[in-house]
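RETRY 2/3 - previous attempt timed out on the joint model. Re-submitting the same 224-residue input unchanged.
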Amino acid sequence: MSKDKPEVPYGTLDLLILRTLETMGSLHGYALARRIEQVSGESLQLSQGSIYPALIRLQQEGWIDCTWGVSETNRKVKFYALTESGRKQVPVEIANWEKATALVARFLGATS
Amino acid sequence: MSKDKPEVPYGTLDLLILRTLETMGSLHGYALARRIEQVSGESLQLSQGSIYPALIRLQQEGWIDCTWGVSETNRKVKFYALTESGRKQVPVEIANWEKATALVARFLGATS
DNA sequence: CTATAATCTGTCGAGAGACGACATGTCGAA
DNA sequence: TTCGACATGTCGTCTCTCGACAGATTATAG
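RETRY 2/3 succeeded.
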């Protein structure tokens, strides 16, 4: 009655955010969401209810920080960017994800 | 203080079980868990707290059913096997998973 | 001037999947 | 008779994601 599959594969949102910030340098939450949707060709949809908690999470991990600024549309926004620690973490997170998916892929292929 | 990352990538357990039953034909829960661990080279560990709820879930979906039997070690066990519906579902689930991971992979590769 | 839409940041409760710990029991071997 | 492996299952907790809502601000259309 009330739960679809996640629009974003479970557990990958942090990775998507980190990778986007690595590429774009600095973005505010709303633009980050739009950017992820755009780059994925609208295949990955994400709600505010996901993006802001994720940003808080990443900030608590110390991988991103934010500063107040003004958006291109003249609104007061929080610009998020990778910290030193976060920049180091990106390849680690990518490696973890690839390792996990490769494991499953190998499993599915095995015994075939 | 009390939660590690899942040993099995989130959302893949159903798939691992279905695929294993497809290959093995029929197994009881305990053997299924051991089999998954073994085929993955002990990389995928899974506890009873995961396997049995998953089996109930799959049964409710109508993809597997079970019959009582006696194990090779002479215990009363429930042998699980794919239903017709479940047999059809395996390639669907695999396709869904591959689609999702390909999407993320493409995203990570984009803008590089 | 005022209404409305778009932008932007958050919070809340609910649902799903996985986990460790525990409860319960059986069987074979020491 | 005790112990360890086998086997099924439940419970409470955690994390991640979601939709819905709340609350602002700004530009634009009427």
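Residues 2-4, 6-8, 10-11, 13-14, 46-50, 53-54, 57, 73-76 of chain A lie near DNA strand D (CB under 10 Å from a C1'). Closing ticket.
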